[in-house]
Amino acid sequence: MADALLVVLRKVALSLAEGALEKIGKEVVEAAPLMTDFEHSMKQIEGELSVLQAFINQVSAQRVSDKAFDAWLDQVRDVAHEVEDIIDEYAYLTAQAVDTSSFFKRKFHQFKGIAAWKKFPGQISQVEARIQRLSEMRNRYGFSVSQLDRTNNFQLSIQFSLSNSAYLIDNSEIVGNADEIGKLTQWLLEEKQDRSLIAILGMGGLGKTAIASTVYKNQKIITSFDCHAWVIVSQTYQVEELLREIINQLIIKERASMASGFMTMSRMRLVEVIQSYLRDKKYFVVLDDVWDKDAWLFLNYAFVRNERGSKVLITTRRKDVSSLAADNYVIELKTLKDAESWELFCKKAFHASEDNICPENIRCWATKIVAKCQGLPLAIVTIGSILSYRDLKEHEWAFFFKQLSWQLANNPELSWISSVLKLSLNDLPSYLRSCFLYCSIFPEDYKIRRKLISKLWIAEGLVEERGDGTTMEEVAECYLMELTQRSLLQVTERKACGRARTFLMHDLVREITSTIAKKEKFSVALAHGGASTSQVAHEARRLCIQRGAQTLNSLSSSRLRSFILFDTEVPCSWIHDTVSCFRLLRVLCLRFVNVEQVPGVITELYNLRYLDMSYTKVKMIPASFGKLVNLQVLDLRDTYVEELPLEITMLTKLRQLQVYALYDILQRSPNSFSATKFFGNICHLKNLQALQVVSANKDLVSQLGNLNLMRSLAIAEVRQSYIAELWNSLTKMPNLKRLIISTCNVNETLDMEMLKPLPNLTTFVLSGKLERGLLPSIFSVKLKQLKLDWSSLKKDPVSSLSHMLNLVDLFLTGGYAGEQLTFRNRWFPNLKCLQLADMEHLNWIEVEDGTMMNLQCLSLAGLRNLKAVPDGIKYIRALHEMFLTDMSNEFIVRLHGSDNHIVQHIPNIKKFESSDSQAVNNVYIPWLAEKFGSGAVAHLALDGSMGVVCASGNHFKSEE
Question: Global pTM?
Answer without folding.
Answer: 0.82
